[in-house]
From TrEMBL:
Pfam families: CSN8_PSD8_EIF3K. It comes from Cannabis sativa (Hemp). One of its GO terms (molecular function) is RNA binding. This is Eukaryotic translation initiation factor 3 subunit K. Keywords: Cytoplasm, Initiation factor, Protein biosynthesis. GO terms for biological process: formation of cytoplasmic translation initiation complex; regulation of translational initiation. Its main location: cytoplasm. The gene is LOC115707065.
Amino acid sequence: MGRERDVAPVPKQAPQQQVAQMVEQLLAVNPYNPEILSELENYVNEQVSSQTYSLDANLCLLRLYQFEPERMSSQIVARILVKALMAMPAPDFGLCLFLIPERVQMEEQFKTLIVLSHYLETGRFRQFWDEAAKSRHIVEVVPGFEQAIQDYAIHVLSLTYQKVPRSVLAEALNIEGLSLDKFLEQHVANNGWILEKGHAKGQLIVLPRNEFNHPELKKNSADAIPLDHVTRILPILG
C-alpha cells in the first residue's frame, strides 16, 4: 500500500463571509433579478447581527423594491437607513434615501431617521442624542449604533478643534462622569489624546494634529478630502 498523502484541511469560512460571498455572486450575475430580493433582505439582517455593512447590496435591494413595491419591508428599509447613518461621514444615507419613495419617507420612523441625519450633518449632537433617546425602538435594534455615532462625532470635532473642552466632548458623545473618564483614558492611551487643565478648572482635551485643525499641515495631495465634504459637516460647533 502506498503511503497516504497528508492533505491540509481547507479553512472554514465564518458564516457571514459565506453569506457575503453568496450575495456578491448574486449581484454580479443579475442585480435586477427580483428573485434575489429575499436573499438581500436576509443579508440586511445578517449585516445587523454580524455588525458588517454592504452599501452596494443595500442599494440593490432598495432598487428592487422600486420594481416590486408591494414586497417592500419597512423594517428592512429602516435597518438599511440606520446602517447608513452609522457610516457617516460617507454620504450613504442620502444615496439610500434617494431610492425610497416619498410616500414611504412620510412614515413616522423614516421621518425620525431623516431628522437624525440632519442633526448629524449639521453637528447638532445634543439634539441628535435627545431625538435618538425617544426613538430607541428604531436605532437600538442595530448593534453598534451608539459607538458608530460617537466615532463620527470625534471625527467632526477633530476637524474643528485643536483643544476641545470636556463639556463639548461630553455633549457630542452623550457620555459624562466616570464613563467619560474611562473613555478619555482609553483615547489617551491608544489615540494620542492629551489632557490638560483649562481656564476656570475646565478640562481641555488636546486632539491629534491634522491638516484641518492645523491648516499649516495641509498637503497638496491627490487624496485630500474635498473642501465641500468638510464644509458640509462643520457648521455649528462652537
